[in-house]
Amino acid sequence: MALYKAYSTNSRNFKVTLENQEIGELLIKKWYSFDADLIMSDGKNYQLITKGFWDSKVELIDGSQTLLDFKMGWKGIVIKTYFDHQERCYLLKLQGFINSKFILIDDSDQELSVASTDFKWLTLNFNYDIETSASFDQLRNRDLLLMTMLHCMNYYISYLSAAT
Q: How many domains, in total, are found in the chain?
C-alpha cells in the first residue's frame, strides 16, 4: 500500500508525489477546458484530449495511440484502459459530499484506491491524499492510471460545481 500526495500549484495544475519523490505533473490547459498534458518524472509526455458531443469523453493519448479513456456514467466515471492491447474497466465514484472521498474499483468490485480531498479555502484549490491497495501497486501502468484518476476527480468536481 502506498500514499500518494497531489498538490495543486494553482487552480489548474497539480504535482503528484510518492514519499517526496515526484511522479508527474498534470497541466490543465485552460480553466474552462478538460484538455491537459501529463508530464511524467521519466520525461514522457502524454495528452488528455476531449472527444465527443459536449466533450463528454476524455482520451489519454501517447502520440497517435489511445492508452485509456473516461467518461461520466450514472454511478461515477468509467475508465477504460487499453494498456498492452488489453481492455480493462474501472469505476471512480464519489463517496460523501462534504468530506468527499473518491474510490477506484475494478470490474470485480475490488477497491484499488481511496482519494481524500482537502479543499484549501485560502487559495480555493484542492489537494488530495491517495491511498492505494496492494493490487493497485502491482499494476504495470499505475502511475498513468493515478495521474488520470487525478484528472477525473477534477472533472467530477467541475461537473458538480456547474450543477449547483
A: 1
